[in-house]
């Protein structure tokens, strides 16, 4: 939303619809998760989506339209059939410029690429008041999917039973991918009354309140390469605990201080305990260094990427 709003001050931005994609005039087709375009709630709808996607590929080729793709993950977390993978391979070949959010993301050999850091959320959430922190509150927020590792978080939290942990609470906020996944998590947490859930879409106001009340935000993904949730938590001056890898080590160095704690391997109760202690050591007057994620620079970089993509597409 912030990218959309910022770009509209400089270029015409049209939201996606199949009608626009197949018939409207545009210079750049910018997509973040193209695999979503292939998904359908029923086999018939999925088949129709594949047909529309094939038409889109033809349209992009015939009109030499520039295609810009932002890479969020190392691989798609959605199940894909062989036919879907083939369509995605064809789309990759049509991509003119690849935008990656960090320097660790691989791109196809010889491809045009730009590295543009994920922007912060400070201005977007500035309208909401910051609530008092709830001592001992640990929070997970975001989409609830199997690869997010929320079951591991519940198990690690429930394992810690010392005096400090008895006053702690775990809050899980977000929309489950399936009702069965929500049921499984509730069953796993049933014996621990300190764990509560808020399933479903959270408004910006509700999300601001939930994050503001947390002492620590935990994002225990099985695979973490980029995380808008981590940037949002840091934007609201809440420390985060994330898996350790090259990307999160770089984020810890960027944010500074004790704002980003990392853990190797699987999340444990001791990891949680250490991260809460680190969060309490920070000073209230400090805030994470997110200066490299200011939106004016990010918007300028996107506009330059579009210009580059148009030139390259027209020269083919």
From TrEMBL:
Superkingdom of source: Bacteria
Cross-referenced Gene3D superfamilies: Glycogen Phosphorylase B
Pfam assignment, any one: Glyco_trans_1_4
UniProt-recorded name of the protein: Beta-1,4-mannosyltransferase
């Amino acid at each position: 939303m912030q990218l959309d709003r910022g770009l509209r001050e400089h270029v015409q931005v049209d939201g996606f619809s199949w009608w626009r994609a197949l018939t409207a005039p545009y210079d750049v087709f910018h997509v973040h998760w193209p695999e979503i375009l292939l998904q359908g709630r029923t086999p018939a709808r999925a088949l129709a989506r594949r047909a529309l996607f094939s038409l889109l590929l033809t349209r992009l080729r015939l009109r030499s339209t520039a295609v810009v793709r932002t890479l969020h993950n190392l691989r798609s977390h959605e199940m894909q059939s062989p036919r879907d993978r083939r369509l995605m391979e064809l789309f990759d070949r049509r991509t003119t410029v690849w935008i990656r959010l960090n320097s660790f993301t691989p791109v196809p050999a010889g491809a045009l690429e730009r590295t543009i850091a994920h922007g912060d959320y400070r201005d977007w959430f500035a309208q909401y008041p910051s609530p008092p922190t709830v001592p001992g509150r640990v929070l997970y927020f975001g989409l609830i999917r199997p690869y997010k590792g929320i079951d591991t978080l519940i198990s690690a939290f429930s394992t810690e039973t010392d005096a400090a942990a008895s006053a702690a609470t775990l809050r899980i906020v977000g929309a489950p991918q399936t009702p069965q996944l929500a049921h499984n998590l509730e069953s796993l947490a049933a014996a621990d009354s300190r764990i509560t859930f808020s399933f479903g879409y959270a408004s910006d106001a509700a999300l601001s309140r939930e994050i503001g009340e947390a002492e620590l935000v935990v994002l225990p993904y099985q695979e973490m390469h980029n995380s808008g949730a981590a940037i949002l938590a840091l934007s609201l001056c809440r420390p985060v605990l994330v898996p350790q890898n090259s990307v999160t080590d770089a984020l810890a160095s960027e944010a500074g201080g004790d704002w980003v704690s990392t853990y190797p391997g699987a999340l444990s109760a001791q990891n949680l305990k250490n991260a809460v202690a680190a969060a309490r050591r920070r000073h209230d007057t400090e805030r994470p260094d997110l200066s490299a994620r200011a939106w004016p620079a990010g918007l300028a970089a996107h506009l330059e990427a579009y210009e580059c993509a148009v030139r390259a597409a027209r020269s083919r």
